């Protein structure tokens, strides 16, 4: 009973946190009307990683509570993307990104993934789950790449003025919570590896953001 209660708390707290996870970043961008320190490449890779990961979870028919936050995160990332393009005066690129987003989503729908599995099974004589393992590993690399892109941006600019440390701290919590829920519900090793890697990298980004935060200089 206590285990189920803890699991429900972890699931719903993760869902609640994800509902507002990007809000601090959105508010920072809107207030500053600038994007210093925020990596566009990191955001695009994160979006791609979310899409691949959610498709993987849906294919295996995992409990919806284990991935329900991803549509919410994708929607918030799209808002952040539009703000970055707007403040960088690159709104004309929004149509290109929208087309890539929709195309990528269609490519990675469950139905298409099933077709790919069947093709591999028939023509390459491989086990069906081979593609799933590869896709999940690819998802981990993509998501890790998004964090490293943000770190590289911070190291290069040495300025995290418009990067929200709170957003990254909340992301760290959600990954840690998902390690617990994955162990209890599915025990999927690939998913566990992803969340462990993401937890470490999110903590690294959080610390880096705090380190490079500009400090106000007192004037006499």
Give the domain tally: 1
Unreliable spans are 216-220
**Strand portion:** under 5%
Which radius of gyration do the C-alpha atoms yield? 19 Å
| Outline type | globular
What would you call the structural class?
mainly alpha
**Number of β-strand runs:** 0
Amino- and carboxy-terminal Cα gap: 61 Å
* Number of contiguous helices: 9
Largest sheet: none
Average pLDDT level: 81
Along the chain, the helix and strand elements come as HHHHHHHHH
What is the helical fraction, as a range of percent?
A: over 70%
Task: From the structure above, extract its key features.
about 220 residues; mainly alpha; 9 helices; about 75% helix; globular; MannP-dilichol_defect-1; transmembrane helix; transmembrane; PQ-loop_rpt; PQ-loop repeat-containing protein 3-like
Task: Write structural notes for this entry.
- This protein is globular.
- The chain is mainly α.
- It has one domain.
- The protein starts with a helix and ends in a 9-residue tail after the last helix.
- It is a multi-pass membrane protein.
- It holds the Pfam family PQ-loop.
- InterPro entries: MannP-dilichol_defect-1 (IPR016817), PQ-loop_rpt (IPR006603).
- Its main location: membrane.
- It comes from Sinocyclocheilus rhinocerous.
SSE layout:
Elements: H1 2-20, H2 23-32, H3 40-59, H4 69-87, H5 94-107, H6 110-123, H7 129-157, H8 165-185, H9 189-211
Helix pairs in contact: 1-4, 1-8, 2-4, 3-4, 3-7, 7-9, 8-9
In a nutshell, what does this entry contain?
The chain is mostly helical and 220 residues long. It contains 9 helices and no strands. The chain has one domain.
């Amino acid at each position: 009973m206590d285990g189920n209660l803890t699991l429900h708390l972890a699931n719903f707290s993760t869902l609640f946190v994800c509902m507002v996870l990007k809000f601090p970043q959105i508010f920072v961008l809107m207030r500053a009307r600038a994007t210093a320190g925020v990596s566009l490449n990191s955001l695009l890779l994160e979006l791609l990683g979310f899409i691949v990961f959610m498709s993987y979870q849906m294919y295996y028919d995992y409990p919806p509570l284990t991935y329900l936050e991803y549509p919410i995160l994708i929607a918030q990332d799209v808002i952040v993307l539009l703000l970055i393009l707007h403040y960088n005066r690159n709104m004309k690129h929004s149509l290109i990104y929208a087309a890539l987003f929709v195309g990528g989503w269609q490519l990675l729908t469950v139905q298409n993934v099933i077709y790919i599995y069947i093709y591999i099974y028939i023509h390459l004589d491989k086990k069906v789950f081979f593609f799933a393992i590869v896709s999940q590993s690819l998802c981990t690399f993509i998501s890790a790449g998004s964090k490293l892109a943000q770190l590289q941006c911070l190291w290069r600019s040495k300025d995290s003025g418009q990067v929200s440390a709170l957003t990254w701290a909340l992301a760290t919590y959600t990954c840690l919570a998902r390690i617990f829920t994955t162990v209890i519900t599915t025990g999927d090793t690939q998913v566990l590896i992803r969340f462990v890697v993401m937890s470490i990298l999110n903590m690294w980004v959080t610390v880096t953001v705090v380190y490079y935060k500009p400090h106000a200089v007192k004037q006499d």
